[in-house]
Amino acid sequence: MTADIELVDVAIIGAGWYGLVAARTYLKLRPTTNLLVIDSDTTVGGVWSKNRLYPNLVAQVKHGLFNYTDTPMPPTSIGRDKTVTGEMIHDYLQRYAEDHDLLRRTRFNTVVQRAIRCDRGWQMTLVDSQGLKGTLEASKLMVCTGVTSVPNMPELKMVDAAVPIIHSRNLGAAYKALSQDNIQSVVVVGAAKSAYDAVYLLLSMGKRVTWLIRPDGAGPLAILPAELLGYFNSIAVASTRLMTHLSPSIFNSKGVLYHFFQQSTIGRWCTSKFWDTVAYLSDRHAGYSEGNHVAQLRPEIDRQRYARSMHPRQRRRVTNVRQRLLGKFWPGSGDSAGFLVQDSCGKRSNYS
Questions:
Q1: Phi and psi dihedrals of 57, rounded to 5?
Q2: Which of 18, 95, 175, 344 shows the smallest number of beta carbons within 10 Å?
Q3: Is the pLDDT of residue 335 over 60?
Q4: What is the pLDDT of residue 340?
Q5: CA–CA separation, 119 vs 121, rounded Å?
Q6: What is the mean pLDDT of the chain?
């Protein structure tokens, strides 16, 4: 990078699912746009980049439900239960970038250290893998980094005999090092998706694993079977419109189906039995009753008892709160609104 200011029309931060489709869509509408995609990794993919893959990484999604609507995903190296593997996702995004001529517009190994408003639009400070800084100005800026981009590392007191510490984000890059015979014991901290993946991977490698889960949190992540009743893919079921009525939400409080499942006696009974069945199948699949060491992984957050116990008067109050919130933050908004939710640090500790 040089000290000169580089100028582009559009800058996109992130070369994952959102960054690639944003670049492709913008160029489809305005092919002559001087567009630049910026990513800190060495390949496209974001969470699914080449360096972040490891052998047992899969998306609990049935093939056909994890791709762009206009570009089917080839069924190569498909996983068990017809799930999509990490390798399939990376290859798919890599081919998508190649087919739409996005690679030559992408700058890898580069971090956007700062972005501020300027007369032209946005001024960014870029830092490459060598530590060299540069300045980029763009008329438009799209932030497509997702919510799992920056590792949230715990503060640990280091001692002279400290062991190497890696974040689950770097589990794929550290796989070869972890495979060495001299590494026999590994401590895993956390209880989200990435922790389950790490524990399973390390046990399959013959390592002795100590799993630490803080007692003041919400407990481990719930374990769901890949298929319900041995036939229905769990994520496919969760993606149906019917689930929007079986899962109470203040943003979905109108319509005939909502009235039946959440306000009528028979409908609420059906909703209750549905979640009882899902809870039973999940518990049996997880094997919480097979021993105390497994029972400790049972989530501490109870299922939707409170939501099912709400009476219509309480639901009307919730709806009124929803309307006041929308009126406060989105004046003149209608029955639906889009949200972008991010914590104060912009960091998440779970990577899947």
A1: -75, 115
A2: 344
A3: no
A4: 26
A5: 6
A6: 80
More confident residue, 66 or 266: 266
Helix H, strand E, coil C: the string for the chain is CCCCEEEEEEEEECCCHHHHHHHHHHHHHCCCCCEEEECCCCCCCHHHCHHHCCCCCEEEEECCCCCCCCCCCCCCCCCHHHEEEHHHHHHHHHHHHHHCCCHHHEECCEEEEEEEECCCCEEEEEEECCCCEEEEEEEEEEECCCCCCCCCCCCCCCCCCCCCCCCHHHCCCCHHHHCCCCCCEEEEECCCHHHHHHHHHHHHCCCEEEEECCCCCCCCCCCCCCEECCCEEHHHHHCCHHHHHHCCCCCCCCCHHHHHHHHCHHHHHHHHHHHHHHHHHHHHHHCHHHCHHHHCCCCCCCCCHHHHHCCHHHHHHHHHHHHHHHHHHCCCCCCCCCCCCCCCCCCCCCCC
Q: 85 - beta bridge partners? A: 58
Judging by DSSP bridges, how do beta strands 133-143 and 122-128 pair with one another?
A: antiparallel
Q: Is 184 exposed, middle or buried (0-12, 13-18, 19+ CB in 10 A)?
A: exposed
pTM here? 0.76
- Residue identified by tokens 């956007």 is 112
Q: What is the mean pLDDT of residues 252-278?
A: 89
In angstroms, rounded to a whole number, what is the distance separating the alpha carbons of residues 198 and 190?
Answer: 10
Q: Which of 298, 15, 329, 317 is nearest to 143 (CA)?
A: 15
Mean pLDDT lowest among 91-105, 183-197, 208-222, 313-327: 313-327
CA distance 186 to 178: 9
User: pLDDT tens-digit profile of 102-123?
Assistant: 999 999 999 999 999 999 999 9
Residue 79: which pLDDT band, with cuts at 50, 70 and 90?
low
The residue type found at 39 is: D
